[in-house]
Amino acid sequence: MENVLRPVVVIGGAVVLTLVAAWLLDLLLRRADARHGETPLWGLLRRCDPPFRIVLCTALLRAAYPQTRILTDHRDGVGRALTLVLIASTAWLLIRIATAVVDSTYTRYAAGAGDAARVRRVRTQVTLIQRVVTAVVVVVAIASMLLTFPAMRTVGASMLASAGVLGIVAGIAAQSALGNLFAGLQIAFGDTVRIGDTVVVDKEWGTVEEITLTFLVVRTWDERRITMPVSYFTGKPYENWSRGGAQMTGTVFLHLDHSAPIPLLREQLSEILKETPEWDGRASGLVVTDSTPNTIQVRATVTAKDADDIWTVRCVVRERLITWLVDHHPYALPHVNTADAVQQPPLAP
């Protein structure tokens, strides 16, 4: 009878203590969240409940397992299995805690900051920091799990002795990956490109949607995703329309006939902009920038508060100016001269 009750009491006691401790912790976090509404930290920490239960229950079972007196022939194997579960769940718990702290810090900063560009910069940095912390915790956890096996400890000295040669070989083999890794850190803390920035890369216009330590995702205007190595943004030129502020100036080019009514065209541009809510009212203008034997080049400049609005304003201005010319001044549109060629008079003898 004792052989049955002992394991039931030990295992059941560990489970009951885990459930009670988890309930008390959740109660404290809910009360703290209700009292401190200015920070979401306590609410985010409640996501740590599953790994916390596994860590506590595994630790209790690991400590009390010898008292159960079951599977005595496999005591080392059971103990090692519980240790592996404890290490893995501890790593999971640490990652959840780090994620909660980072998300809480970013949320509080974003709520109080008025500069959208600075918020995007902080978001990029905390995202990459979170990925680095996760990678470090996972690597340490895997190394700790491997060291629980006696064979791994035995070969440890030889592994350290050959670490120098292996490091050189790995560095040469992973040169591209390491380059992307350092490029990702440079982007995070160099403030060259941030999540939410509007960029033009390889003649594609889009918004930076995700930045990792090795690649960057750009969402184009037509919902496509372009995945690029982060080293591209440290080794090649690209356009960042959000750099230095969100306000932008855009241009609209028209090729017209030499007889185009430029003063009336300027008045029509002003009327169009007054009816366009995306125009921020900072500046506008229309000038003739070039002339060819057949046409003139007219440039209209407009302003808007960000890249999305400047695109809308440019499209509206281009469409309505062309429509106005077609309806009221069709002669101003470029056309091909089909008149008969003038014959050269014969040369005098």
Question: What does it look like?
Answer:
There is one protein chain. The protein has 349 residues and is α+β, with helices and mostly antiparallel strands. It has 3 domains: 2-112, no CATH class; 176-240, SH3 type barrels (Roll); 248-332, Alpha-Beta Plaits. It is built from 12 helices and 8 strands. Strand 3 (215-220) and strand 4 form a beta hairpin. Helix 3 (49-68) runs antiparallel to helix 4 and helix 4 packs antiparallel against helix 5. Residues 156-163 have low confidence and may be disordered.
The tally of strands reads 8
Mean pLDDT: 78
Strand order of the largest sheet: 4-3-2-1-5
Strand portion, in percent? Answer: 15-25%
Q: What is the string of helix and strand elements?
A: HHHHHHHHHEEEEHEEHEEH
Q: Name the quaternary structure.
A: single chain
Quickly give the structural class. Answer: alpha+beta
Domain module count: 3
What Rg is obtained from the alpha carbons, in whole angstroms? 34 Å
Number of helices: 12
Give the N-to-C terminal Cα separation.
138 Å
Summarize the biggest pleated sheet: 5 strands, antiparallel
Basic shape: elongated
Uncertain spans, ≥5 residues at pLDDT below 50?
A: 156-163
Q: How would you summarize what this structure contains?
A:
The protein is 59% helix and 16% strand. It has helices at residues 2-35, 41-45, 49-68, 75-112, 116-146, 150-154, 156-161, 163-173, 175-190, 232-235, 262-274, 307-328, and strands spanning 198-201, 204-211, 215-220, 225-229, 239-240, 248-256, 279-291, 296-304.
